[in-house]
Amino acid sequence: HIAVFDLNDFSIVWQCPTSQLNLGVKIPKSVAISAEGHLVMAYADATGTSSGWIGWDITNKSAARVKHETTGQIYRFGVDVSRDGQRVICGGNTATLFDLTKSPPKKEVLVASGSEVKAVAISPSAEMVAVVDSAERVDIFEKPLQPNGARYNFDMGTDNNLLHSIQFSNDLKSLLCSHTLAFHLVRLECNEERLVLPSHADRGVPDLRFSCDGTKLVSSGANGTVHISDTRTGDLLSRCDEFGGNKVQSITLSSNERWLATAAWDEEPDGESLGTRIPIWSFPKFELMSVVET
């Protein structure tokens, strides 16, 4: 099943019965939801050779709005929905963009190479799309989108390294692609100038966030550190290592940029779990304001 919860009271506002996953599926593997909470996209792993993406308008209790069969492996960042819920990009053996303002949805194939699509992202304005294939090549497309007309591309050169994140900044001035060894920060306003920043954690960087104005990048480390960097220069602005060396799994920044929440997995020296702590810090000074224990 796939469910959507209301975070005010944690009630279920929508759920998809297995009967609607009608591609012969057995496991929903990857899910995304639009910013206004209307469109839900899910990838379903099929029992046969065909798998696919299905999208629902949860304000309409009828059948699925988007159906797209594909082949190839699906990765963590294999789907993205534009903020207005009008466009969806899906990975698989190709990158396929759907325009949901059309009925039926208009479909465009952006990448149809021999490499599977590893990650996709739509910019906040829906004017640009980024695609990463399994050969670690990054293509950036700009509207009007052309199937073989990427505005810019580069090779991350990261064979056998785990892709951690792909995202546009809110101001559309930067694109971030990060993996185990480094961050690739593409400055879209400066003729695609690319900064390559070494990872500050040898075990990887599980989560990254742009500040609202796009000038800062917050990154969590598997070695128990959180860094704030300048996206224009790559310089380190501040650092917090108050996590006892435990992996900082997830971070989130408040919309007013006053608070930063970090989720770290606490362990005893013998490896016994102590649960998860969520410290809330002032941003960007890292003054501890509160701690939530889970």
Task: Output mean pLDDT.
Answer: 77
Shape: globular
Major sheet: 4 strands, antiparallel
Low-pLDDT sequence parts: none
The counted number of beta strands is 26
Distance between the termini: 25 Å
Strand content: over 45%
Biggest sheet: strand arrangement: 3-4-5-6
> Helical residue percent?
under 10%
Number of DSSP helices? 0
Structural class: mainly beta
Radius of gyration: 20 Å
The SSE string, one letter per element, is EEEEEEEEEEEEEEEEEEEEEEEEEE
Features:
mainly beta; 52% strand; 0% helix; single chain; 294 residues
Task: Describe the overall structure.
The chain has 294 residues and is mainly β. It contains no helices and 26 strands. Strand 11 and strand 12 form a beta hairpin. The two termini are 25 Å apart. The model has no long low-confidence stretch (mean pLDDT 77).
What is the structure about, briefly put?
The protein contains no helices and 26 strands. The chain is mainly β and 294 residues long. The strands form 7 sheets. A 4-stranded antiparallel sheet has the order 3-4-5-6, with no helix packed on it. A 4-stranded antiparallel sheet has the order 7-8-9-10, with no helix packed on it.
List the helices and strands and how they pair.
Elements (H helix, E strand, L loop, with lengths): L1 E5 L4 E6 L8 E9 L5 E8 L4 E7 L8 E5 L8 E3 L5 E4 L4 E5 L6 E6 L5 E6 L5 E6 L3 E6 L9 E4 L7 E6 L5 E6 L2 E6 L5 E6 L8 E4 L5 E5 L5 E5 L5 E5 L7 E6 L5 E9 L5 E10 L5 E6 L1
Antiparallel strand pairs: 1-2, 3-4, 4-5, 5-6, 7-8, 8-9, 9-10, 11-12, 12-13, 13-14, 15-16, 16-17, 17-18, 19-20, 20-21, 21-22, 23-24, 24-25, 25-26
